[in-house]
Amino acid sequence: MATIKDVAKKANVSIATVSRVINARGKYSKEVEERVLDAAKSLNYTINFRAKGLKTGKTGVIAISIPDYYKIHYPEILTTIVPHLSSKDFHVDLLVNIRLQKIYNYIKEGRYDGLIIISPEQDDRAIHNIIKEKIPTIFAYKEIEREDVSTVSIDFFQAGYLATKHLIRSGHKSIVFVGLDYESYASNEIERGYLFAHDEYGIQYREENILKFDRSEPFNLYMRSLKELIKKSLSFSAVLTTDHLNAYIILKLLYVLGLKIPDDVSVVACGERSKLRYTIPDLTTVILPIEQTAILSSEILVNALLNNDNVVKRIKLMVQISEGKSVLKRLTKI
After folding, report:
1. Is the same domain home to 90 and 126?
2. Staple 298 to which of 53, 55, 84, 101, CB 3.0 to 4.6 Å?
3. Nearest to residue 247, comparing CAs of 271, 212, 214?
4. Is 40 within a domain?
């Protein structure tokens, strides 16, 4: 197994320089950085995290596991968490679309002092193994059905329920749901709230009114698919979207189809108010506390690391509806 001495020799630099490059600390040129990284790669050098932490028992590194969807569409998660952790002298290792089992392997290697795992996939065994390692871990944006781990989640079900209830009470019975066609906890929970509200008011939902899409396909194809499905859908008077991007797409699509909001179609979106406040018309929005969840997650983790606070915290943040001008109140109310 290659050592840091081997990397230094191959890159023709000192061991101290290799350490600075690997830990992203201190000063070094771009050319030196490339030589060191190339040497490390060619030698299959990996950091011995356990040895690194022998003196203090700490690595100083926090892992943030985040699905690509959250990273792209909710950048405020990282712009909130990373500066807070950095201000406490922690380094951040960003893990995008990394499976829980692989994260568990990293933990076994001793890489991290703590973790924030954002909306993890459903892998009970990996979650059990991660918790068993006893390092401070926060599961965020998704409720974990265990009592021995800290979670900070959002009541996405309530978001779907409140949005649908608002539309129904405004006289709308045929409501199109626009969500995501892959494993998205938030989208699935909002859909569950949408269906629950229909049942509560005795309204039979229609399968053709539930539209889901995979955003990995090219945008133009996505727009075309959505347009065709909207055109094929039975008569509807309202649309519920699960996030701000779907809301923008729906607004543009309805405009292209010559439909006016709210005269022809009412629209309610779930998302952060800051991303939807400049739409025309002003969208009625179920506000999701995305940034607040990020703040609480990082604060709880830092407190656990610096103050040895091992008390399990289970927090679910509530949502609220902010009425805009995108919902037409019909004469016949439910």
Report:
1. yes
2. 84
3. 271
4. yes
- pLDDT > 70: percent of the chain: 87
Radius of gyration of the chain (CA): 24
Per-residue exposure over 201-223, b if at least 16 CB sit within 10 Å of its own CB, e if not: eebebeeebbbbbebeeeeeeee
Q: Does residue 174 lie within any of the structural domains?
A: yes
pLDDT tens-digit readout, 6-32: 888 888 988 778 877 776 666 788 888
* Crossing angle between the packed helical segments 124-132 and 100-108, to the nearest 10 degrees: 20
CATH of the domain at 127: 3.40.50.2300
pTM: 0.80
Domain hosting 25: range is 1-46
Cβ–Cβ contacts within 10 Å for residue 158, how many?
21
Same domain? For 121 and 179 the reply is no
Q: Evaluate whether residue 104 is within a structural domain.
A: yes
pLDDT in tens, 221-247: 666 766 776 666 657 899 999 988 888
